[in-house]
Amino acid sequence: MVDVRVIRVREKCIGCGACAALAPEYWEVDQEGKSKFKQADSNELILSLDEEELRSLIEAAEACPVNCINIFKSGKKLI
What we know:
The protein is of the alpha+beta class and 79 residues long. Helix content is 23%, strand content 33%. The protein has two helices and six strands; from the N terminus they run βαβββαββ. The chain has helices at residues 18-22, 51-63, and strands at 2-8, 27-29, 35-37, 44-49, 69-73, 76-77. A four-stranded antiparallel beta sheet has the order 4-1-5-6, with helices on one face. Strands 2-3 form a two-stranded antiparallel sheet. Strand 2 and strand 3 (35-37) form a beta hairpin. The radius of gyration is 11 Å and the shape is globular.
């Protein structure tokens, strides 16, 4: 397992839904058409993931056309 910190910049989100389509276990689109974490109402989340789960989260972040999802591992930005 690896601990990661995920930060979503809500103001940048255009509501395309790519994150929710690629990683529905972590993301959903709210009533305002913006992405949000399923696990929390904040813009930051700390998760303990296995490699497959991390790949899914990275894939969703890479698909974001406005790069509003940032993932950090051990203090270093992965995406």
